[in-house]
Write a structure and sequence with these properties.
By secondary structure, this protein is mainly α. Among the domains are: 178-279, Alpha Horseshoe (Serine Threonine Protein Phosphatase 5, Tetratricopeptide repeat); 281-339, no CATH class. It has 20 helices and no strands. Helix 10 runs antiparallel to helix 11 (165-173) and helix 11 (165-173) runs antiparallel to helix 12.
Length: 339
């Protein structure tokens, strides 16, 4: 960026396009402070300047900053609104996403694929299936599903989160070119709503069509295996995860693997997996702790609790629930001071 700055400074009269290129460059390299400094030097920022700034603030700043910049834009377009919608979505403020969508329409602006993806995700998170269905109809009327696989995947995910699995499956089948994200949207929906066998069948179809599962896929399938007692399948998935080296970089996947073995009652295997995780959190230990309590292994449960504390992890509500279960079932009182 320093070289780009030197070239820029050599220009006698940089136009707004040149300023915008420099602004985008600083933002791309994660320098929000310098990007803001560049923006303040632009004599007459255009809508592209403002949109670049708000996207950078949304990406690297806080939501309050994003809202502040958005409120200062003298003329905004769909890109401006998308930046604000994305900011709200990243902070799980789904009601605000839907309000932005309505206000954007009231200003006479036409949503694009990015807008619809954000709104569909909000509809799924809030279970606003009626709203989501209306958005679906609008998307179809614009013939956008054939052009954008991310939009199609968001539609499948919305129906799946709302529990409308028939519509989710129907939407999935209409996707001409699928990817692992679209498969994950369907599989996740099946697992979340207790249709584990459908999830496993979809997983086999995914493989048959030549797709490579990722950490999200495996996490869902491990949950399905644990729920239906598919121990052989679960072990096979475990081997594949290890061969792909995924446990080194995904704690959620590691926790799902521990939890699967706990559900099988294979506590030694669960502990072995946990000990091999490069990073462990309170969720990891809670799964093992709860398993030992449920299977009556009091001393193992006590050891588990002590090891969790030794690693500097703070117990949460689930940990304390396990403690009270252990006390009530085995009359262990070492957690409480003697009076």
């Amino acid at each position: 960026m320093k070289e780009a700055q030197n070239i820029f400074d050599s220009l006698l009269h940089p136009n707004v396009y040149s300023w915008n290129v420099l602004l985008h460059g600083y933002g791309k390299h994660g320098s929000l402070a310098e990007a803001r400094s560049v923006f303040e030097r632009i004599p007459h920022p255009d809508v592209c300047s403002w949109n670049t700034l708000i996207k950078l603030v949304s990406q690297y700043g806080c939501l309050d900053d994003t809202k502040f910049v958005f409120g200062m834009i003298p003329y905004r377009n769909v890109v401006s609104w998308n930046a604000l919608i994305t900011g709200y979505a990243e902070h799980d403020q789904n009601e605000e996403v839907l309000k932005c969508y309505e206000q954007m329409l009231s200003e006479g602006l036409s949503p694009n694929e990015v807008t619809y993806i954000g709104v569909l995700n909000a509809c799924g998170s809030t279970r606003a299936i009626h709203k989501g269905t209306l958005i679906h109809e609008e998307i179809v009327s614009k013939d956008l599903l054939k052009k954008d696989i991310s939009l199609a995947s968001a539609l499948v995910s919305m129906y799946a989160k709302c529990g409308a699995l028939v519509k989710a499956h129907s939407g999935f089948e209409e996707i001409r070119v699928r990817n692992v994200v679209s498969w994950n949207a369907l599989i996740t929906g099946y697992v979340q709503h207790g249709q584990e066998h459908e999830a496993l069948n979809s997983f086999e179809r995914l493989r048959t069509e030549g797709f490579l599962p990722n950490a999200v896929t495996f996490t869902c399938i491990l949950k399905a295996c644990g729920s239906v007692g598919a121990i052989d399948k679960g072990k096979q998935i475990h081997d594949e995860i290890v061969n792909l080296g995924l446990l080194k970089e995904d704690l959620v996947l590691g926790n799902a693997l521990v939890d699967m073995y706990v559900k099988y009652g294979m506590m030694e295997k669960a502990q072995e997996v946990l000990q091999k995780l490069l990073i462990r959190d309170v969720v990891s230990w809670n799964s093992l702790f709860a398993g030992y309590v449920q299977h009556g292994w009091d001393h193992k449960a006590l050891d588990c609790y002590e090891l969790m504390q030794f690693e500097g992890l703070t117990p949460n509500a689930i940990t304390f629930t396990c403690i009270f279960m252990l006390v009530s079932l085995s009359h262990v009182d070492c957690f409480f001071p003697q009076t």
